[in-house]
Design brief:
Layout lengths: L2 H5 L9 H9 L24 H10 L4 E6 L7 H9 L2 H15 L1 E10 L2 E7 L4 E5 L6 E9 L5 E7 L2 E8 L2 E9 L7 E5 L17 H20 L4 E5 L7 E2 L17 E2 L5 E5 L5 H18 L16 H7 L1 H30 L9 E5 L7 H12 L8 H6 L5 H13 L1 H8 L8
Antiparallel strand pairs: 1-14, 2-3, 2-9, 4-5, 5-6, 6-7, 7-8, 10-13, 11-12
Length: 434
């Protein structure tokens, strides 16, 4: 496939892009859902932002904290330096959100400054790829962008080759071509909810979009009810409506009018009374029902949606309520971790000039997706690492704390330079040498 053929292709991940963006940003109007509001009631329209809450609450549990190779005790400090130099703590969060909202995001490796490669993240708007149906790896890809002078540009990647293109007078022309020195295309897709027969990915929000539409209708009805029937209604019987006088202006009111905060005086002999406001519990109960549907399909606890007013008293109870949500986040770590590992393998190949023999053993280290109670975790680990018959050594015990690579380094140095700690490791709790 050529550059122009790939450029003119229509990737499936762009078909519903505007629709997904509208749901995430809370801009899906009710008239787009088939609900018509009178112009004077447009101000009462309210859109529920559950899709955004779903995506952001899941992304908040995902944080890369290092890279290591299976069988090695230490994290790879060089890869972590590259990660930090490219501000990937921030950019990875943007990539996760893009992947969850649109179903697909992209990472790109290119030459940087010195021995640090450039790692960037991209949405799917200007990206086109073609994958090998057997390996699902990218065998051809391109990215379009705007040049400094405002004209259109593009980079076209194939194994070992990179081309830059420019659009001059409406025609794409090849500007430059060079050897990349890489055996693979340096473009890695991050795919959400892929299936065996569909590797394009799906938005994480599809489960809640229809329920969000229904909830937006219900809460807009609640807004209208608050204006029209929620407060008591005053009435006058036996008087002439045309003789009513506005107490504030002293002018006659030509027709019956009832507004919140409006006070009127009427003729003598009229019967005055009020009707109680409507009970809106039916609408609020409907909102709770819709929230329960979202909770069941996403694993989010109800209090994530602002429905439950009771705060969990401890981290343990919070984790119990969020068990499915945590499990889903851990699954996302596995899926995204494969793409991050491939991205860093490409960075190594670019800098080292070849594929490392142990490249396939590279793994992504994630922070614990749950909300741990550090005290209870530490007590449990201590019981495994101490006593007459410890099950695990201290270094393995610290791994359970999910320390960052820098924290692990400091802990190792502290243990090596602390005489009392060295003695404690050499002598067991019963006073016998280990």
């Amino acid at each position: 496939m050529s550059f122009l053929t790939l450029l003119n292709s229509n990737p499936p991940h762009l078909f519903d892009r505007d629709r997904y963006e509208a749901y995430f940003d809370g801009k899906k109007r009710l008239d787009a859902l088939g609900v018509t509001l009178p112009p004077e009631m447009r101000v009462l329209e309210l859109i529920v932002d559950w899709p955004r809450i779903q995506v952001e609450s899941l992304e908040e549990r995902l944080k890369v904290q290092g890279f290591f190779r299976a069988g090695e005790d230490e994290a790879d400090t060089r890869l972590w330096t590259w990660w930090q130099s490219n501000m990937m703590d921030t950019n990875s969060s943007l990539l996760h959100i893009e992947t969850f909202v649109q179903g697909r995001g992209f990472g790109l490796v290119g030459p940087g400054e010195g021995d640090i490669p450039k790692i960037t993240v991209h949405d799917g708007v200007g990206v086109r790829i073609r994958t090998d149906p057997n390996t699902n790896r990218v065998i051809e890809g391109l990215i379009t962008y705007k040049l400094a002078d405002g004209s259109d540009g593009a980079s076209y990647y194939t194994p070992g080759k990179t081309q830059t293109w420019g659009k001059l007078n409406g025609v794409w022309r090849l500007m430059k071509q060079f050897d990349s020195g890489m055996s693979r295309v340096p473009l890695v897709p991050f795919v959400n909810r892929a299936r065996i027969g569909d590797r394009h990915g799906r938005s994480e929000m599809v489960d809640v979009m229809r329920v969000t539409d229904a909830a937006s209708r219900a809460i807009t009805n609640l807004q209208a009810a608050l204006e029209l029937v929620a407060l008591p209604t005053r009435y006058f019987l036996g008087g002439d409506g045309k003789t009513f006088i506005d107490k504030g202006t002293g002018k006659p009111i030509p027709e019956w009018e009832a507004y919140i905060g409006r006070f009127v005086t009427g003729p003598s002999g009229a019967n005055v009374g009020s009707l109680p406001g409507a009970n809106l519990d039916q609408i609020t109960s409907t909102m709770r029902f819709y929230g329960a549907m979202v909770s069941s399909s996403t694993g989010m606890p109800l209090h994530y949606l602002g429905i439950s007013g009771d705060n969990p008293p401890s981290a343990e109870s919070l984790n119990a309520q969020s068990h499915r949500h945590i499990t889903k986040a851990e699954k996302k770590q596995t899926l995204l971790g494969d793409s991050y590992s491939e991205l860093m393998q490409l960075a190594e190949e670019l800098v080292d000039g070849g594929v490392k023999p142990d490249a396939a053993r590279l793994e992504t280290d994630w922070r614990d997706a749950s909300t741990p109670n550090l005290q209870s975790v530490a007590q449990a680990i201590q019981s495994l690492a101490q006593g007459d018959h410890p099950i695990i050594p201290p270094k393995v015990a610290r791994d359970y704390l999910r320390l960052t690579p820098e924290q692990k380094r400091i802990s190792d140095e502290w243990e090596a330079n602390n005489p009392l700690q060295s003695l404690a490791n050499a002598v067991g709790a019963n006073g016998r040498a280990q």
